[in-house]
Design brief:
By secondary structure, the chain is mostly helical. It has one helix and no strands.
Length: 19
Amino acid sequence: MKKMVAQVVEQPVTRPFPQ
């Protein structure tokens, strides 16, 4: 699930996952 982490790092304002 590295793609999810990459999305969070790119746009954490869109939807900050509880990781």
